[in-house]
């Protein structure tokens, strides 16, 4: 069981490191000082996306599904709940991160930047 938990934790950490570090913009004709200020403001708006509660809800939902599947399959419901909780929490974290990135990109587009990603 410990090996499974460590494998799930490693996968979660690797997933958190994937992806781009931020928006990519066309910098032609852009005042980079103003861009950095706008980016900081847009990133502050993105902090309003509620990551903690989303991860908690995903973990609870995943635990419930994992326990049910584990019990139905004749296996260990507790083990299924643990795996489901990690999986559900990780999925919710990825969704929240994508939502934050969308907020930043939309904010920058609203300020006139050509966002490429």
Model description:
This protein is mainly α. It has one domain. It has 4 helices and no strands. It has helices spanning 2-17, 32-46, 51-72, 77-110. The chain is rod-shaped. It starts with a helix and ends in a 7-residue tail after the last helix. The model has no long low-confidence stretch (mean pLDDT 75).
Q: What's a concise summary of this model?
A:
With 117 residues, this protein is an all-alpha fold. The protein has helices at residues 2-17, 32-46, 51-72, 77-110.
Relative strand content: under 5%
Derived structural class: mainly alpha
Q: Which residues sit in consecutive blocks of at least 5 with pLDDT less than 50?
A: none
> Quick one: biggest sheet?
none
Helix count?
4
> How does the overall form come out from the CA principal axes?
rod-shaped
The residue fraction in helices comes out at over 70%
Question: What is the CA-based Rg, rounded?
Answer: 19 Å
Rounded mean pLDDT is 75
Please report the total strand number as a whole number: 0
How many domains in all?
1
What are the SSEs and their pairings?
Blueprint: H1 2-17, H2 32-46, H3 51-72, H4 77-110
Helix pairs in contact: 1-4, 2-4, 3-4
Question: Which keywords apply here?
Answer:
single chain; 117 residues; mainly alpha
